[in-house]
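[09:14] KT: can someone run the structure on this one? pasting the chain below
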Amino acid sequence: MKTDKYNKAAAQSGNEKPLVSVVVPVYNSSKVISRCLKSIDEQSYDNIEIICVDDGSEDNSFEILKHFKTTTKKKVHIVVQKNAGVSSARNKGIKRSEGDYITFVDADDYAEPQMIETLVKGAIESHADIVKCSRYDVYNEKKIARKPIWNRKTTITKKEFYEEIYPQFYGRCRLVNAFATLISKQLLKENNICFDENMIISEDEAFSLELFDKADCFTYIPEPLYNYVKSSSGLSSNGVDLKSRIKSRIKSIEKLRYYSNKWGLPNREKYMKEKIAYLGVYTAMQTSYRNTRYTINEQKELYKSIVHDKIYKNAIQQSKKKAMIVPEKIICLLIKMRMITLSFYLSRFVGLMQRNFRSKLEKYRNA
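[09:31] RB: done, structure tokens below
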């Protein structure tokens, strides 16, 4: 049985529970990392190791990690590297891990006390390679339960992926997040699955495409057990390298197209066009948000380069806007009408409104 393989290390150590490696990427997280670590330390599931990867922090994050290691009874590894991004940090954590399962908790987020125990139970009961739970979105300490993908605990086997899992990647897929997820270490190791370190966004989606391509069984738990902290500044593209973001988005499209052809889903070209149109509009909108790295004229030119790019242009013109929410549909319509400058400024306004009223808008999107 699969569980025998997964629990081999646990059995050898004399512990009947499988070991879970919790990977925490850390970068200039001194204001939030203590809450994150505390939530891991207080997990009801006790057979865990905590791998903190300091990705070249310039604040006192490292000192906080060292202090935590001396105060907790949990096994803690601290890995230090030059700043290389979250994907590199997660990959370093995977390599350092000794667990039967791996889960990721971002430094500014925190877990509910029973998260790991619930995920492990789900994995063992269903022999699942991947287990995901729902989450809370946290705005200024106020928690809003995210609408679950399925309303009850659901286990999906490989033969059902073609109907239940793969089609979701063509929309606003909520299966792609690395957090709130328990993954078989064996699945990662045998298939050499890791994060693409050249992508600054959509790296979770690229990672998840490969995960679900190789996995045989998936379990979803609708209970919100992970707290995803959203700040008003987090939505802004302030300081983000927009050119690298655009390149990463194109790469994510290429990866989805590769797996789309591999899976051979019916109507996949129609689905791909809708996904590309959505990503084109979404990327353009993000490019318009206030950014200290660029002048507004530079952002306008980048915005135009996206909507006129051959990868996006035809898809946007033909799109039925099925994957888009209302603001994106309006921007898409303006682009179709070649009202590019107006669409740019409206996108910029939408970004400002989202930044100021994010939690209220999320309620409508989550309905």
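[09:33] KT: thanks! Confidence is low (pLDDT under 50) at residues 1-14.
[09:34] RB: yep, looked fine to me
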